[in-house]
Every structure is written in C-alpha cells, then in structure tokens.
Amino acid sequence: MLVNESLVQDIVQEVVAKLNISEPAAKYHGVFTDMNDAIAAAKKAQAVVRRMSLDQREQIISNIRRKTHENAEALSRMAVNETGMGNVGDKIIKHHLVADKTPGTEDLKTVAWSGDRGLTLIEMGPFGVIGAITPCTNPSATVICNSIGMIAAGNTVVFNPHPAAVKTSMFALNLINEASLEAGGPDNVACTVEKPTLESSDIMMKHKDIPLIAATGGPGVVTAVLSSGKRGIGAGAGNPPAVVDETADIRKAARDIVNGCTFDNNLPCIAEKEIVAVDSIADELMNYMITEQNCYLASKEEQDKLIATVLTPKGLNRKCVGRSAKVLLGMIGVTVPDNIRCIVFEGEKEHPLISEELMMPILGMVRAKDIDDAIEKAVWLEHGNRHSAHIHSKNIDNITKYAREIDTAILVKNGPSYAALGFGGEGYCTFTIASRTGEGLTSAKSFTKSRRCVMSDSLCIR
C-alpha cells in the first residue's frame, strides 16, 4: 500500500499530540522505572488472574480486542513514526488481524480418561509471570498478541521491548491494562520499564519469579533466551524461499509473491525473501512481476550499489530495514514512480541480496533446472531456520516432496505468505512463530504447563 510520506508525518504529529505521547511514562499503566518493580507488580496481578474464571479472563480479552480495533490506526502511525519501518496501511491490517484472530480462552482444552480405575484429567495451567522480548519490526501487534494468549492462560507478562519501539510498546501496554481494569481485572497484567536495555533484559531472564521466557526477534536474542537456563520459547529469524514450478498458475504466483513480499515493506519474518523458479517458467514469472505487479528490475550496477547500501560488516543497515522500494532505490540515486512496489533481479543463490534475510522489498530470483534442483536450492537458502517457506505448484507430489525436505513451521501453498496468519487463509493469527524451539505458531496453550489430576477408583460411573 503506497503512502504519501509528508502526509503521514503531518497526521502522525496530529495523532501523537492527541494521544499525549510526550507525557511521562508514569501516566501509563504497567510502566515502571525498574525491572524488579515491574516483575513484582506483575506477580501480584498474576495472583488475581490465576483465580479468575475463564469467563472473566475472556472479558479482559474482549476489551483488548475492542481497544485494538479502536486504536489500530493510532498504533500503526506511532510505530511507523517511531521506528521508520513498514507502512501505516499494512500495520493497520495487522492490528485488526491480531484483534480478530488471536486465540483466547477457547484455545485451552481439558483432556480426560475415564475407566475402571477412576478418572484422570489433564488441564492446562499457567506458568505465572512470563518474560517477553519483542521486536521493533512489529512492536504493538506482538505485544497485544502475546498478552491475549498469556492472559487467557492465566499468566501475566513483563515485556522488555526493543528500545527503538518503546513508546509504541508502552502505549499498547497501557491499553491492555485499561482493558483489564474496565473488565474488573487487576492492573499490571502486562508490565514493562521506561527504558528497556540489555541490562533490564538480563534481570528479567535471570529473575527467580520468571519461569518462562518468550522471545520474538533475531537469532541473537533467541540464543540468549535459550542460554538462560529457563524454559524458553524462541521465535527467531527465517529466510523464506518461494518455489515456483512449471505447473503453477504463473500470473497468480507473481501476484501472490509480490503481495506477500511487499506487505509492511517485507518486515514479517514469514514474508517471501527470495524466489527459486524452474527454468522453463522463470522468464514468464519475471515478466509478470515487472509488467503487472509494479516491480523494478535492478541492473548489475544497481545491485552492487544496493549491496553496499543495505549490508554492512555487522549485518543489515538498520536505516534500510522496512523501507519502501522507492526509498531504497532513492538511496542509490535511482528515481522511480510512487507505484514501484518491489526491486527484483536474477542471481545465483549465493548472491548477498538473496542469501541474506533482508526484511525489505528486494526480491532476487534463482533459476533451477527442475523441481529437485529447486528444492535443493530452497533448502540451502532457508539455512535450516525451519521457519517458513512457500510453493506455487499444482503438482501434489512436488508440494509433498518440498514440504518434507524444507521441514518448516509454516508452508504456504499457492498463496501469499500472510495467508499463514489467517489473512486470506484459514487458521489463527500469531506474531510469535517459534521455529527454533518447536512450538510453531504460538497461542494461549503455548503459555501453559500440563497438570495431571488423578482420582483413583472413583468418579467412573458407567
């Protein structure tokens, strides 16, 4: 979705003024100066939440959903203004999606066995206070998504949000606590600190009252969580390849791939990051992307300039992440119309703009001899993250072979990547996709522990 940047800035300033974003964080519910105080407050609130009925928790969640809908535009503009990443229109869609399709208490199921020796139940109990680390790429939607699932399960949560998105994150947390208070629940069901740092994150991960840590971010933060000695849910990086074989609807594949790649300027970790196309249809696919999907074909010289601009010795240039194709091309001195959505080119799989996860609308295409060659290249490009992958094919055998070899938490077939989150596809939404630790698309049940209750030789009445 294209947005006039100057208009966005004017509207953002107006929205920020109305929301009093410049006011001290102390005016927000759930915001503390010290991480230890935040954890203590969340622990006190959890003692109340765990005794609440599922209906009472669902009332809080219903309020969170309503407030998210009401503030979707404000939250989206705040995120773009604070981080400079993504675009307002797609972030609004994300907030409505998380409000409508994040599972609540309905996700919690009790399993029972009844027989001659009595009755046994397995119920899903809360962990307590969960520590959560959230990214700047998707700040408020991740905070809201995590909070819905965690509160539904009877937990409270302490966030250490990315410092580049702290204002947006704090505003989202305030909405969550207001939702709880309005439903008769406690304050501080979700907490954070005014100035999140590596030190505050370290305190949270080592604190005796934090039994579970959920991290959404890059490989570094996930590795830190998994090294903490605590139970960890790690939602890390991916480099999702989109395979296109000779049986695909090529025109539709071009549309779906570009739509998925450009959604929120390629910030979602599930988004198409590169294409592997069977040689016989590669030219046709590229032609449709350029002539019908407003893609810009970068020359070899422009590719080299992009490499020098978006990549640094330490990794991605943060000033390029989540920027539009027009802005990225402007950085290398290329002027294009507003309707240009994506930068495309052809290269080998080792090309730096193909092998690296860029999180920006730059889409390289790799040719393959046949489906077996395409699968081999796609598996290499996914780098063993086991996160997400995509395929466009009408051949069931090819789809099945790819699914087995790529072995990702998400595989989207014949659709844009965001169909995996229930937007144009079936299923629930989440913004914490735990590929490294195996939970996959997290929901309320991911934040529970299994508790078995056994009544021996009783309560079987058949």
Topology:
Elements: H1 5-19, E1 31-32, H2 35-49, H3 54-70, H4 72-83, H5 88-101, E2 111-115, E3 118-126, E4 129-134, H6 139-152, E5 156-161, H7 166-182, E6 190-193, H8 198-206, E7 212-216, H9 219-226, E8 231-235, E9 241-244, H10 250-262, E10 274-278, H11 279-292, E11 295-297, H12 300-310, E12 311-312, E13 315-316, H13 325-331, E14 342-346, H14 352-355, E15 362-368, H15 371-382, E16 388-392, H16 396-406, E17 410-413, E18 433-434, E19 440-441, E20 448-456
Parallel strand pairs: 1-6, 4-5, 4-7, 5-6, 7-8, 9-10, 9-16, 10-15, 11-14, 14-15, 16-17
Antiparallel strand pairs: 2-3, 3-20, 12-13, 18-19
Shape: globular
Contiguous runs where pLDDT drops below 50 for at least 5 residues: 1-24
Backbone structural class: alpha/beta
Determine the number of helices (DSSP H or I, runs of at least 4 residues): 16
Note the gap between the termini. 61 Å
Largest sheet: 7 strands, parallel
CATH hierarchy class name of the largest domain: Alpha Beta
Can you give a write-up of this model?
This protein has 16 helices and 20 strands. The chain is an alpha/beta fold and 462 residues long. The protein folds into two domains: 245 residues, Aldehyde Dehydrogenase, Chain A, domain 1 (3-Layer(aba) Sandwich), CATH 3.40.605.10; 186 residues, Aldehyde Dehydrogenase, Chain A, domain 2 (3-Layer(aba) Sandwich), CATH 3.40.309.10. The strands form five sheets. A seven-stranded parallel sheet has the order 11-14-15-10-9-16-17, with helices on both faces. Strands 1-6-5-4-7-8 form a six-stranded parallel sheet, sandwiched between helices. It has a three-stranded antiparallel sheet with strand order 2-3-20, with no helix packed on it. Helix 3 packs antiparallel against helix 6 and helix 6 packs parallel to helix 7. The protein is globular, with a radius of gyration of 23 Å. The N terminus is likely disordered.
